[in-house]
Structure formats: structure tokens, C-alpha cells
Write a structure and sequence with these properties.
The protein is mainly alpha-helical. The chain has helices spanning 3-28, 38-41, 53-65, 68-76, 81-108, 115-122, 125-156, 158-180, 185-205, 212-228, 235-260, 280-288, 295-305, 315-338, 342-348, 352-365, 371-405, 417-420, 422-439, 449-470, 476-502, 506-535; strands at residues 273-274, 278-279. The protein has one domain: Amino acid/polyamine transporter I. Strand 1 (273-274) and strand 2 form a beta hairpin. The longest helix is centred in the C-terminal third of the chain and has 35 residues, at 371-405. It is globular, with a radius of gyration of 22 Å.
Length: 536
């Protein structure tokens, strides 16, 4: 089979789903363009700042994408390309995009608070506390691992390091032009993109080589500053401009597939069990992660995106559309693996980014771009996406910690220091992440958080289902995905707890068991609320 048919199939299905199913979800969520969003009613110039739809789409897309939709499908291709592409397409349309869209609107209708706040209102305060503890812990681990990943990428690819550093200054310039000098979005974008291209060229010509530990320190300082700074000065403009790198990568990859039309050589299906991963169910669904659905998206949607939503009608392209674009990226990533013969794929699977960069470089060579330059650009793009998710996750960890300590019966000036002082709340999360980075423990406990990430998605869908049901809205479009995600995550966590207990890795076994119990507890509480709403 030729890959061109696969990419056209995916694009056609995604466009149809965006128009038809996306509009259906909009009606179920009662999108109202005349209703003022918290970005206006709660404007503070720091976190609550209305953003133009293209800017917010860029921020949201760059934040949720990261490196996961590139790495996940390539690793999951060990089961064969057909089960992976089916999960990406069906999961992205009916579960992932619904999860992101509904999480965004649920947050907006709750003053743009996190999903934990929605859980408190709809399920109870105990459920909220458990959720916030879990989400903060997950985010701190994500921050630690991404610092390690980005730091090692910068050490191994100095070109990516220098380009990324220059890009931070470009983002600040763009933010000042757009918000302080009131320049039009079109002109500011043009200037920003020119400076971005110059940064990429300068980074390629003048690589910045530093020891790994220095990059760790620089990244730790950077994420602290990025998390406490107003979103308009760094986070929002950097993510917006960064999204153009991702768009360019996808467009060049798509054109490269169209021109080269590589054959799919990887087996359509290999086995229900792969030694390096486990059984197809539930491991494939957990491994693909962001390419089909990711709980991290609900934290982004309800953490930063909801606070910047200018109009509810923008939630359709930002919430539903961004997920489908990410699913398309996952399909392109899958093709870079599927174009390899199985032997070459197995020899390279230890470095999924290398598979992706090689595939993109090979396809772009057919359109006149030198292979090594194209491969370097792909590596630069992956590191840029990881850095974007890194600073977003740090800000989200601050939000979760502040919500945990917030006392609703007290005015703002009498709230605990953790709530009043964003610097202190940020420092706590960054300190824990830094400890994991320098202790070397960050990557050791990472495997369990593939399942934890999908559990976040199940919990977000659970909160949305209860919220809609209590409003008298038929929420089957959220309940069915919720049940599917609970089945996947509970099975994965149960098997993981058992395997780690057998191998005497008791730390991972305890964490997996704790997450399993948390999910069951919240599911029981939600079921009680659903029964109460049905009786009413």
C-alpha cells in the first residue's frame, strides 16, 4: 500500500468530522457567542487575557502537541500500522477532540477554573482534592522529564539550543508589538516569522554547546520565569509563533508524502503481544497517547486556554480542531515508521525521534530540500514542542497547587501564602521537579505515567459527563468515551501494579495501585451524583 492513500484518508475523515461532529458537539455544549468569557469578566493582565483566535489556537496546539504525538505512534507501530491508525482516527474524532472541546467549555462555564474545580462543583470537595493532588504530581513529573529530554537534546544538538534561546527573545518582541504597541496581528506575525526564520538560521550556523548540567539549570530558571510572567509577554506569543514551526513541519511532511509517496513496508499487524510493550489491549491505547487522546490536554484547556478564550465560538477550532490537527501529525509520524522495513524499524525503535527525523528528511529530499538540513529541522521542531509543553506544564502545576490551598470562605488578601503569591507556588513545583532531575529519579518512575495521563482524560470526561447530566443534557457523547477510557486505564494500571509487584519494584506498584483506587473512588462518587440528577 502507498502512504498517499493513507494520508488522504485521514485528512478527508478529519475535515468531515470537524464540520459535522464538531458542530454537533457545539450544539450539545450550548455554545453562545454572545456570552462573555472569563477572559473578559475576570481580566487581570497576567493569566486572564483574551487572545485572538489564531493566537490562542497556536498556543493551545503547541502546548498540547509536544513530542508525544510523534513518539507515541512510532513506538505503538510495533503492533502493526493498522491498529495504530484506526485508534488515531477513531480515538481522535470521537474521544480526544470531544475530551478537549468539552473540557475547555466546562472550564469556561466555571470561571475558567481547572477540571479539579469542576469536579468539586459537580462531584464533591473530596474528589477535587484527590484530583488536584494527582494532577500536580503528574505535572511535576512531566516538568522533570521534559527538562531532562530538552536538556539532552540541547546537549546533543547545539543548533536546537541556540535557536531556542534566540526564539525566546523573538517571542517577547512579538508580544510587545501586539499588546503594547497595538500592532495588527498580521503585521506582528510577519515580523515575528521573519525573526523566527533568522533565529533558526542563526542557530544552525552558530550552535551553542554547553554541558548538560548547565542546560538543566538554565531550563529550571527559564520555566520559573515563564510561569510567573504575564501570558502575553512570553507564553502566548512563543506558543503562537512556535505553532508555525509545527505547521511548516506538517505541510512539508504532507507535500513530501505526496511527491515521494513512500510504500508502507511495516506489517499491517504483527501480534496481540509484543515483548517490549505487552498486550495490544490496553498498551497500544496508552502508548499512542496524545495522537488520539491525552489527559494533559484537559489540564491545558482548563488551565491556560480557558483563561484566554476571547469568544465561545472560538472553542470549536481551538478545542476540537487542534486535537484533529494533532491526530494528523500522529498519522504523519506513523508513516515515517511504516515506510521502514520491519528489521530497520526494530533496530531504530530505541530512538523514535531519530525514526521521525529520518523519515521527514527522506521525504523532504524529494521536494529539493537537502536531507541533513531537513533532518535537523525535524529535530529542532521536536525539541521546540517539548520546550513549549515544559513551560505550560509548570504554569499548570502552579494553578493546581493554588486551587488546592484556596479557601473559598476567605477573601483574596486573607488566603494562604501559596494562593496569594504566584512566585512561591511556582517555586514549590519547580523545586520538586529540580530534585527529580538532579537525583536521577525522574525517568525511573516515568513509565507509569503513560497510564496516569490517560486516567486524567477519563476523570475529565467523568467531570464533564456529570456536569452536563446535572444540567439536563444528554451526555452520551461524553459518557461513552469516559467508559472506554476507564476500561483502558484501569486495566493498564491493574496489570502494571501486578507486574511491578512481581518484579519487586514496589514503588511503581504502590503508585499504580493508588491511582487505580483514586479512579474507582471518583467513579463511584460520580455515579452517585448521576443517579441523584436522574432522580431529579
Amino acid at each position: 500500500m502507498q502512504s498517499l492513500w493513507l494520508i488522504f484518508f485521514a485528512v478527508s475523515i478529519f475535515i468531515g468530522a470537524y464540520i459535522l461532529y464538531g458542530r454537533y458537539i457545539s450544539k450539545k455544549l450550548e455554545i453562545d457567542p454572545t456570552r462573555k468569557t472569563p477572559a473578559h469578566t475576570m481580566y487581570d493582565g497576567i493569566d486572564y487575557v483574551p487572545a485572538p483566535a489564531p493566537v490562542l489556537l497556536g498556543h493551545h496546539f503547541a502546548s498540547i502537541a509536544g513530542a508525544a504525538p510523534i513518539i507515541g505512534p512510532i513506538v505503538a507501530a510495533s503492533f502493526g500500522w493498522i491498529p495504530v491508525v484506526l485508534w488515531i482516527v477513531l480515538g481522535g474524532i470521537f474521544i480526544g477532540a470531544v475530551h478537549d472541546f468539552s473540557s475547555l467549555i466546562a472550564s469556561v462555564r466555571h470561571q475558567s477554573k481547572s477540571i479539579g474545580e469542576v469536579i468539586e462543583d459537580e462531584i464533591g470537595s473530596t474528589g477535587k482534592l484527590f484530583f488536584l493532588i494527582f494532577s500536580w504530581t503528574t505535572l511535576v513529573l512531566v516538568v522533570a522529564v521534559f527538562i531532562i529530554v530538552v536538556g539532552k537534546t540541547f546537549e546533543e544538538t547545539p543548533q536546537a539550543a541556540s535557536a531556542s534561546v534566540l526564539f525566546m527573545f523573538v517571542a517577547v518582541i512579538f508580544g510587545l508589538l501586539l499588546y503594547k504597541f497595538k500592532m495588527s496581528l498580521a503585521l506582528a506575525t510577519f515580523i515575528g516569522l521573519v525573526l523566527l526564520i533568522l533565529s533558526l538560521i542563526a542557530g544552525y550556523v552558530y550552535p551553542l554547546a554547553l554541558p548538560l548540567w548547565i542546560w538543566y539549570v538554565i531550563l529550571i530558571i527559564y520555566i520559573f520565569i515563564a510561569s510567573v510572567a504575564p501570558v502575553w509577554i512570553l507564553l502566548q506569543p512563543r506558543d503562537y509563533l512556535n505553532s508555525f514551526i509545527l505547521y511548516a513541519l506538517m505541510i512539508l511532511g504532507f507535500v513530501g508524502i505526496f511527491v515521494s509517496n513512500p510504500s508502507i513496508r511495516l506489517p499491517a499487524f504483527t501480534s496481540f503481544h509484543v515483548d517490549s510493550l505487552g498486550y495490544l489491549f490496553p498498551i497500544l491505547f496508552v502508548t499512542v497517547a496524545c495522537g488520539a487522546i491525552s489527559g494533559f490536554h484537559s489540564l491545558v484547556a482548563s488551565g491556560t486556554t480557558a483563561k484566554q478564550l476571547n469568544n465561545e465560538k472560538d472553542a470549536h477550532p481551538v478545542g476540537y480542531g487542534a486535537m484533529l490537527i494533532e491526530s494528523l501529525l500522529a498519522v504523519i509520524s506513523l508513516i515515517t515508521a511504516a515506510m521502514l522495513v520491519f528489521g530497520d524499524y526494530k533496530s531504530m525503535i530505541g530512538n523514535p525521534v531519530a525514526i521521525f527525523s529520518h523519515g521527514i528528511g527522506t521525504m523532504m529530499a524529494y521536494i529539493g530540500i537537502e536531507y541533513h538540513a531537513a533532518k535537523t529541522f525535524a529535530s529542532l521542531a521536536v525539541s521546540a514542542f517539548a520546550l513549549t509543553s515544559l513551560d505550560t506544564a509548570t504554569r499548570l502545576a502552579r494553578f493546581a497547587l493554588q486551587e488546592f490551598f484556596t479557601k473559598k470562605d476567605l477573601p483574596q488578601e486573607k488566603q494562604p501564602l501559596m494562593v496569594q503569591n504566584r512566585y512561591y507556588a511556582t517555586a514549590v513545583g519547580v523545586a520538586f521537579a529540580a530534585f527529580l532531575v538532579f537525583s536521577g529519579q525522574g525517568l525511573k518512575i516515568w513509565p507509569i505515567f503513560g497510564s496516569a495521563n490517560q486516567l486524567l482524560a477519563a476523570l475529565a470526561l467523568l467531570a464533564v459527563s456529570v456536569w452536563l447530566s446535572r444540567k439536563g443534557i444528554n451526555a452520551l457523547f461524553a459518557k461513552i468515551p469516559m467508559v472506554i477510557m476507564f476500561a483502558i486505564t484501569l486495566t493498564a494500571l491493574g496489570s502494571m501494579a501486578y507486574r511491578n509487584a512481581i518484579s519487586k519494584n514496589f514503588l511503581l506498584a504502590i503508585i499504580a495501585l493508588a491511582l487505580f483506587v483514586l479512579a474507582v473512588f471518583l467513579a463511584i462518587e460520580a455515579h452517585k451524583r448521576l443517579r441523584e440528577s436522574q432522580k431529579r
